[in-house]
Amino acid sequence: MNPKKREQIFAYWKAANPSPKTELRYNSPFELLISVLLSAQATDISVNNATKGLYAEANTPAKMLGLGEARVRHHIRTIGLFNTKAKNVIKTCQILHDQHDGVVPDNRESLEALPGVGRKTANVVLNTAFRQIAMAVDTHIFRVSNRTGLAPGKDVVEVEQKLLKFVPADYLLDAHHWLILHGRYVCVARKPKCGDCGIADLCEFKQKTTAEPTGKNTASSKNKRKKRVSAIRSTRSRSLGSISTGSSSLGSRSSGDSLTGISSSGSSSPGNSSSRSSQSSGSSAKTKKKVQRKKLANKVLLADSKRIDVKTQLADKKQSAAKLVLVDKKKTGGKLKPSNKKR
Ligand code: SF4
After folding, report:
1. How would DSSP label each residue in 140-187?
2. Is the dihedral of CA 112, 114, 116, 117 positive or negative?
3. CB proximity list for 338: less than 8 A, separation 6 or greater
4. Of 87, 98, 101, 120, which residue is the catalytic one?
5. 138 is an active site residue
6. 120 is catalytic
7. Interatomic CA distance for residues 15 and 35, integer angstroms
8. What is the 127 CA–ligand 1 centroid distance (Å)?
Protein backbone atom coordinates (compact mmCIF):
# COMPACT_ATOMS: atom_id res chain seq x y z
CA MET A 1 0.00 0.00 0.00
CA ASN A 2 1.30 3.44 -0.89
CA PRO A 3 1.69 6.21 1.72
CA LYS A 4 -1.10 8.29 0.21
CA LYS A 5 -3.64 5.52 0.77
CA ARG A 6 -2.46 5.02 4.36
CA GLU A 7 -2.85 8.73 4.99
CA GLN A 8 -6.38 8.67 3.53
CA ILE A 9 -7.42 5.65 5.64
CA PHE A 10 -6.32 7.23 8.92
CA ALA A 11 -7.73 10.61 7.90
CA TYR A 12 -11.08 8.87 7.39
CA TRP A 13 -10.93 7.17 10.81
CA LYS A 14 -9.94 10.40 12.52
CA ALA A 15 -12.80 12.30 10.88
CA ALA A 16 -15.26 9.56 11.88
CA ASN A 17 -13.95 9.24 15.46
CA PRO A 18 -11.55 12.05 16.49
CA SER A 19 -10.94 10.74 20.04
CA PRO A 20 -11.01 6.94 20.02
CA LYS A 21 -11.07 5.28 23.44
CA THR A 22 -10.66 1.78 24.81
CA GLU A 23 -13.92 0.09 25.70
CA LEU A 24 -12.51 -1.13 29.01
CA ARG A 25 -13.71 0.91 31.98
CA TYR A 26 -11.00 2.23 34.29
CA ASN A 27 -10.23 5.20 36.54
CA SER A 28 -6.47 4.83 37.02
CA PRO A 29 -3.43 3.18 35.40
CA PHE A 30 -3.73 0.44 38.05
CA GLU A 31 -7.34 -0.35 37.11
CA LEU A 32 -6.41 -0.29 33.42
CA LEU A 33 -3.50 -2.69 34.04
CA ILE A 34 -5.74 -5.16 35.91
CA SER A 35 -8.52 -4.88 33.29
CA VAL A 36 -6.13 -5.56 30.40
CA LEU A 37 -4.64 -8.47 32.34
CA LEU A 38 -8.14 -9.91 32.78
CA SER A 39 -9.16 -9.29 29.16
CA ALA A 40 -7.07 -12.12 27.67
CA GLN A 41 -9.55 -14.45 25.92
CA ALA A 42 -12.49 -12.44 27.28
CA THR A 43 -14.65 -9.64 25.95
CA ASP A 44 -14.35 -6.08 27.23
CA ILE A 45 -18.00 -6.22 28.31
CA SER A 46 -17.45 -9.30 30.49
CA VAL A 47 -14.35 -7.70 32.03
CA ASN A 48 -16.24 -4.47 32.75
CA ASN A 49 -19.05 -6.43 34.40
CA ALA A 50 -16.59 -8.25 36.65
CA THR A 51 -14.39 -5.29 37.57
CA LYS A 52 -17.31 -3.05 38.51
CA GLY A 53 -17.66 -4.83 41.86
CA LEU A 54 -13.95 -5.62 42.18
CA TYR A 55 -12.78 -1.99 41.91
CA ALA A 56 -15.57 -0.86 44.23
CA GLU A 57 -13.87 -2.98 46.91
CA ALA A 58 -10.22 -2.63 45.85
CA ASN A 59 -8.80 -0.01 43.50
CA THR A 60 -5.14 -0.03 44.66
CA PRO A 61 -2.51 -2.79 44.94
CA ALA A 62 -2.63 -2.62 48.76
CA LYS A 63 -6.43 -2.95 48.86
CA MET A 64 -6.32 -5.81 46.37
CA LEU A 65 -3.83 -7.65 48.56
CA GLY A 66 -6.13 -7.01 51.53
CA LEU A 67 -9.05 -8.47 49.58
CA GLY A 68 -7.18 -11.72 49.00
CA GLU A 69 -7.07 -14.20 46.14
CA ALA A 70 -10.31 -16.01 47.03
CA ARG A 71 -12.35 -12.81 46.97
CA VAL A 72 -10.68 -11.66 43.72
CA ARG A 73 -11.53 -15.06 42.21
CA HIS A 74 -15.14 -14.65 43.31
CA HIS A 75 -15.41 -11.24 41.58
CA ILE A 76 -13.92 -12.47 38.29
CA ARG A 77 -15.52 -15.93 38.25
CA THR A 78 -17.53 -15.08 35.09
CA ILE A 79 -14.36 -14.54 33.04
CA GLY A 80 -12.43 -17.33 31.32
CA LEU A 81 -9.25 -18.59 33.05
CA PHE A 82 -10.35 -16.83 36.26
CA ASN A 83 -8.29 -19.11 38.56
CA THR A 84 -4.99 -18.28 36.85
CA LYS A 85 -5.96 -14.63 36.44
CA ALA A 86 -6.83 -14.27 40.15
CA LYS A 87 -3.40 -15.66 41.08
CA ASN A 88 -1.65 -13.27 38.64
CA VAL A 89 -3.60 -10.27 39.94
CA ILE A 90 -2.45 -10.96 43.51
CA LYS A 91 1.17 -11.61 42.43
CA THR A 92 1.22 -8.43 40.31
CA CYS A 93 -0.19 -6.39 43.19
CA GLN A 94 2.47 -7.81 45.50
CA ILE A 95 5.28 -6.69 43.12
CA LEU A 96 3.71 -3.27 42.59
CA HIS A 97 3.41 -2.87 46.36
CA ASP A 98 6.92 -4.14 47.15
CA GLN A 99 8.97 -2.76 44.26
CA HIS A 100 7.09 0.25 42.82
CA ASP A 101 5.48 1.86 45.88
CA GLY A 102 2.08 0.78 44.65
CA VAL A 103 2.47 2.73 41.39
CA VAL A 104 2.21 1.23 37.91
CA PRO A 105 5.57 1.66 36.10
CA ASP A 106 5.56 3.53 32.81
CA ASN A 107 8.23 1.48 31.02
CA ARG A 108 8.01 -1.72 29.04
CA GLU A 109 10.69 -3.65 30.91
CA SER A 110 9.07 -3.23 34.34
CA LEU A 111 5.60 -3.88 32.99
CA GLU A 112 6.57 -7.08 31.21
CA ALA A 113 8.20 -8.32 34.42
CA LEU A 114 4.77 -8.45 36.09
CA PRO A 115 3.00 -11.87 36.21
CA GLY A 116 0.40 -12.21 33.46
CA VAL A 117 1.61 -9.07 31.66
CA GLY A 118 2.98 -9.72 28.17
CA ARG A 119 4.06 -7.45 25.34
CA LYS A 120 0.52 -6.71 24.23
CA THR A 121 -0.71 -5.78 27.73
CA ALA A 122 2.35 -3.61 28.27
CA ASN A 123 1.72 -1.82 24.95
CA VAL A 124 -1.92 -1.10 25.84
CA VAL A 125 -0.94 0.35 29.23
CA LEU A 126 1.90 2.42 27.76
CA ASN A 127 -0.29 3.77 24.97
CA THR A 128 -3.59 4.25 26.81
CA ALA A 129 -2.52 5.17 30.34
CA PHE A 130 0.77 6.94 29.62
CA ARG A 131 0.09 8.17 26.03
CA GLN A 132 3.26 6.68 24.63
CA ILE A 133 3.52 5.55 21.02
CA ALA A 134 3.00 1.80 21.15
CA MET A 135 1.13 -0.67 18.99
CA ALA A 136 -0.62 -3.48 20.88
CA VAL A 137 -1.32 -5.94 18.07
CA ASP A 138 -4.22 -8.17 19.00
CA THR A 139 -6.27 -10.47 16.74
CA HIS A 140 -8.30 -7.53 15.33
CA ILE A 141 -5.30 -5.37 14.48
CA PHE A 142 -3.45 -8.33 12.99
CA ARG A 143 -6.42 -9.11 10.71
CA VAL A 144 -7.10 -5.51 9.60
CA SER A 145 -3.42 -4.80 8.97
CA ASN A 146 -3.10 -7.86 6.74
CA ARG A 147 -6.40 -7.57 4.88
CA THR A 148 -6.15 -3.89 4.04
CA GLY A 149 -2.47 -4.03 3.18
CA LEU A 150 -1.69 -1.35 5.78
CA ALA A 151 1.01 -3.51 7.44
CA PRO A 152 1.04 -7.11 6.25
CA GLY A 153 3.03 -9.54 8.39
CA LYS A 154 3.32 -13.21 9.32
CA ASP A 155 3.19 -12.63 13.10
CA VAL A 156 2.17 -9.93 15.58
CA VAL A 157 5.72 -8.65 16.04
CA GLU A 158 6.20 -8.10 12.30
CA VAL A 159 2.81 -6.33 12.05
CA GLU A 160 3.65 -4.20 15.09
CA GLN A 161 6.97 -3.12 13.60
CA LYS A 162 5.45 -2.34 10.22
CA LEU A 163 2.64 -0.32 11.77
CA LEU A 164 5.14 1.71 13.79
CA LYS A 165 7.08 2.29 10.57
CA PHE A 166 4.24 2.98 8.10
CA VAL A 167 1.44 4.68 10.04
CA PRO A 168 1.68 8.46 9.38
CA ALA A 169 3.20 10.23 12.41
CA ASP A 170 0.08 12.35 13.08
CA TYR A 171 -2.00 9.24 13.67
CA LEU A 172 0.44 6.98 15.55
CA LEU A 173 -0.85 7.72 19.04
CA ASP A 174 -4.46 6.69 18.32
CA ALA A 175 -3.86 4.19 15.51
CA HIS A 176 -4.18 1.25 17.90
CA HIS A 177 -7.75 2.20 18.90
CA TRP A 178 -8.93 2.91 15.35
CA LEU A 179 -7.57 -0.40 14.11
CA ILE A 180 -9.17 -2.37 16.96
CA LEU A 181 -12.57 -0.69 16.56
CA HIS A 182 -12.51 -1.23 12.80
CA GLY A 183 -11.65 -4.90 13.24
CA ARG A 184 -14.21 -5.40 16.01
CA TYR A 185 -17.20 -3.81 14.29
CA VAL A 186 -16.59 -3.59 10.51
CA CYS A 187 -13.75 -5.77 9.29
CA VAL A 188 -14.95 -8.71 11.38
CA ALA A 189 -13.28 -12.11 11.18
CA ARG A 190 -15.76 -14.38 9.37
CA LYS A 191 -17.53 -12.04 7.00
CA PRO A 192 -16.17 -8.48 6.80
CA LYS A 193 -18.85 -5.83 6.30
CA CYS A 194 -17.28 -4.39 3.16
CA GLY A 195 -20.63 -2.89 2.12
CA ASP A 196 -20.56 -0.71 5.27
CA CYS A 197 -16.83 -0.05 5.22
CA GLY A 198 -15.75 3.56 4.84
CA ILE A 199 -12.32 2.59 3.52
CA ALA A 200 -13.48 -0.05 1.02
CA ASP A 201 -12.14 1.93 -1.94
CA LEU A 202 -8.70 2.12 -0.29
CA CYS A 203 -8.54 -1.42 1.11
CA GLU A 204 -6.49 -3.90 -0.92
CA PHE A 205 -8.20 -7.08 0.31
CA LYS A 206 -8.92 -9.22 -2.76
CA GLN A 207 -11.89 -11.16 -1.30
CA LYS A 208 -14.06 -8.23 -0.29
CA THR A 209 -17.64 -9.21 0.47
CA THR A 210 -20.34 -8.03 -1.88
CA ALA A 211 -23.20 -7.91 0.65
CA GLU A 212 -25.58 -4.96 0.56
CA PRO A 213 -24.82 -2.23 3.14
CA THR A 214 -26.66 -2.76 6.44
CA GLY A 215 -26.47 0.93 7.23
CA LYS A 216 -24.61 0.41 10.50
CA ASN A 217 -21.32 1.53 12.01
CA THR A 218 -19.91 3.84 9.40
CA ALA A 219 -19.93 7.59 9.01
CA SER A 220 -20.54 7.31 5.26
CA SER A 221 -23.61 5.16 5.73
CA LYS A 222 -24.94 7.69 8.24
CA ASN A 223 -24.51 10.44 5.64
CA LYS A 224 -26.25 8.30 3.02
CA ARG A 225 -29.12 7.72 5.45
CA LYS A 226 -29.40 11.47 6.17
CA LYS A 227 -29.53 12.22 2.44
CA ARG A 228 -32.23 9.60 1.92
CA VAL A 229 -34.35 11.02 4.77
CA SER A 230 -34.07 14.61 3.48
CA ALA A 231 -34.93 13.46 -0.07
CA ILE A 232 -38.06 11.70 1.21
CA ARG A 233 -39.05 14.77 3.23
CA SER A 234 -38.69 17.14 0.27
CA THR A 235 -40.67 14.74 -1.93
CA ARG A 236 -43.46 14.62 0.63
CA SER A 237 -43.59 18.39 0.96
CA ARG A 238 -43.81 18.66 -2.85
CA SER A 239 -46.66 16.15 -2.84
CA LEU A 240 -48.54 18.15 -0.19
CA GLY A 241 -48.05 21.34 -2.23
CA SER A 242 -49.45 19.80 -5.40
CA ILE A 243 -52.44 18.48 -3.47
CA SER A 244 -53.30 21.85 -1.98
CA THR A 245 -53.04 23.61 -5.37
CA GLY A 246 -54.95 20.88 -7.18
CA SER A 247 -57.68 20.34 -4.61
CA SER A 248 -60.38 21.93 -6.83
CA SER A 249 -59.87 19.26 -9.45
CA LEU A 250 -60.63 16.60 -6.87
CA GLY A 251 -64.27 17.67 -6.82
CA SER A 252 -66.21 16.28 -3.91
CA ARG A 253 -63.22 14.30 -2.51
CA SER A 254 -62.70 15.10 1.15
CA SER A 255 -59.41 16.54 2.48
CA GLY A 256 -58.81 13.34 4.42
CA ASP A 257 -59.03 11.30 1.22
CA SER A 258 -56.60 13.65 -0.52
CA LEU A 259 -53.98 13.34 2.20
CA THR A 260 -54.07 9.59 2.30
CA GLY A 261 -53.50 9.67 -1.43
CA ILE A 262 -49.92 11.10 -1.04
CA SER A 263 -47.31 8.92 -2.62
CA SER A 264 -43.56 8.87 -2.01
CA SER A 265 -43.00 9.43 -5.72
CA GLY A 266 -44.60 12.86 -5.44
CA SER A 267 -47.73 12.14 -7.51
CA SER A 268 -51.02 12.97 -5.85
CA SER A 269 -53.23 13.05 -8.91
CA PRO A 270 -55.99 10.43 -8.85
CA GLY A 271 -55.40 9.91 -12.55
CA ASN A 272 -51.78 8.76 -12.20
CA SER A 273 -52.66 5.27 -11.10
CA SER A 274 -49.38 3.76 -12.28
CA SER A 275 -47.31 5.79 -9.80
CA ARG A 276 -49.76 5.76 -6.97
CA SER A 277 -48.56 4.28 -3.70
CA SER A 278 -50.25 1.33 -2.05
CA GLN A 279 -51.65 3.74 0.56
CA SER A 280 -53.21 5.84 -2.19
CA SER A 281 -54.68 2.86 -4.04
CA GLY A 282 -56.11 1.56 -0.75
CA SER A 283 -57.83 4.88 -0.17
CA SER A 284 -59.33 5.09 -3.69
CA ALA A 285 -60.57 1.50 -3.40
CA LYS A 286 -62.38 2.48 -0.20
CA THR A 287 -63.95 5.46 -1.96
CA LYS A 288 -65.08 3.24 -4.84
CA LYS A 289 -66.68 0.81 -2.42
CA LYS A 290 -68.50 3.67 -0.69
CA VAL A 291 -69.91 4.87 -4.03
CA GLN A 292 -70.93 1.33 -4.96
CA ARG A 293 -72.68 0.87 -1.61
CA LYS A 294 -74.58 4.15 -2.09
CA LYS A 295 -75.67 3.11 -5.60
CA LEU A 296 -76.88 -0.23 -4.29
CA ALA A 297 -78.81 1.47 -1.48
CA ASN A 298 -80.48 3.75 -4.03
CA LYS A 299 -81.45 0.78 -6.17
CA VAL A 300 -83.01 -0.97 -3.17
CA LEU A 301 -84.95 2.16 -2.26
CA LEU A 302 -86.19 2.46 -5.83
CA ALA A 303 -87.24 -1.17 -5.93
CA ASP A 304 -88.98 -0.80 -2.56
CA SER A 305 -90.89 2.25 -3.72
CA LYS A 306 -91.96 0.37 -6.87
CA ARG A 307 -93.18 -2.56 -4.76
CA ILE A 308 -95.14 -0.15 -2.58
CA ASP A 309 -96.70 1.41 -5.69
CA VAL A 310 -97.77 -2.01 -6.97
CA LYS A 311 -99.24 -2.96 -3.59
CA THR A 312 -101.11 0.33 -3.41
CA GLN A 313 -102.51 -0.18 -6.91
CA LEU A 314 -103.67 -3.71 -6.00
CA ALA A 315 -105.26 -2.44 -2.82
CA ASP A 316 -107.06 0.29 -4.78
CA LYS A 317 -108.36 -2.27 -7.29
CA LYS A 318 -109.64 -4.53 -4.48
CA GLN A 319 -111.33 -1.60 -2.84
CA SER A 320 -113.10 -0.53 -6.07
CA ALA A 321 -114.10 -4.14 -6.76
CA ALA A 322 -115.60 -4.41 -3.28
CA LYS A 323 -117.52 -1.20 -3.85
CA LEU A 324 -118.98 -2.59 -7.11
CA VAL A 325 -120.11 -5.76 -5.31
CA LEU A 326 -121.81 -3.68 -2.65
CA VAL A 327 -123.67 -1.62 -5.26
CA ASP A 328 -124.77 -4.78 -7.07
CA LYS A 329 -126.08 -6.28 -3.78
CA LYS A 330 -128.22 -3.21 -3.17
CA LYS A 331 -129.61 -3.34 -6.70
CA THR A 332 -130.43 -7.06 -6.71
CA GLY A 333 -131.55 -7.32 -3.10
CA GLY A 334 -128.79 -9.75 -2.13
CA LYS A 335 -128.78 -11.93 -5.25
CA LEU A 336 -125.31 -11.36 -6.48
CA LYS A 337 -124.46 -14.23 -8.77
CA PRO A 338 -127.27 -13.96 -11.35
CA SER A 339 -126.85 -10.23 -11.65
CA ASN A 340 -123.06 -10.65 -12.02
CA LYS A 341 -123.49 -13.29 -14.66
CA LYS A 342 -125.90 -11.16 -16.55
CA ARG A 343 -123.51 -8.29 -16.62
S1 SF4 B 1 -13.26 -3.34 2.61
FE2 SF4 B 1 -13.79 -5.22 3.71
S3 SF4 B 1 -11.84 -6.28 3.99
FE4 SF4 B 1 -11.33 -4.14 3.49
S5 SF4 B 1 -11.15 -3.14 5.48
FE6 SF4 B 1 -13.22 -2.85 4.78
S7 SF4 B 1 -14.37 -4.53 5.75
FE8 SF4 B 1 -12.18 -5.08 5.83
Report:
1. HHHHHHHHHSSS--SSHHHHHHHHHHHS-GGGHHHHHHHHHHHHHHTS
2. negative
3. 332
4. 120
5. yes
6. yes
7. 29
8. 25
Question: Hey, which bits of the chain come out as E strands?
Answer: none
Cβ atoms within 10 Å of 154's Cβ, excluding its own: 8
- Residue spans per domain, the chain: 3-196, 221-276, 293-341
pTM of the model: 0.61
Rg for the chain, CA atoms, rounded: 43
Q: Which CATH superfamily is domain 3-196 in?
A: Hypothetical protein; domain 2 (1.10.340.30)
Contact 168, 7 (CB under 8 A): yes
For ligand 1, the distance from its centroid to the CA atom of residue 222, given in whole angstroms, is 18
Pocket of ligand 1 from Cβ distances under 6 Å = 147-148, 186-187, 192-194, 197, 199-200, 203, 205, 208
Classify residue 167 as left (phi > 0), alpha (psi -120 to 50) or beta.
beta
Whole-number Å distance between alpha carbons of 115 and 284 = 76
3 state SS for 205-248: CCCCCCCCCCCCCCHHHHHHHHHHHHHHHHHHHHHHHHHHHCHH
Burial class of 166 by CB neighbour count within 10 A (0 to 12, 13 to 18, 19+): middle
343 residues of the chain, pLDDT tens digit each: 899 999 999 999 999 999 999 999 999 999 999 999 999 889 999 999 999 999 999 999 999 999 999 999 999 999 989 999 999 999 999 999 999 999 999 999 999 999 999 999 999 999 999 999 999 999 999 999 999 999 999 999 999 999 999 999 999 999 999 999 999 999 999 999 999 899 999 999 998 887 666 655 554 555 544 544 454 444 444 444 433 333 333 333 333 333 223 233 333 333 333 434 444 555 677 777 777 777 776 665 555 555 555 555 666 667 767 766 666 666 666 554 444 444 4
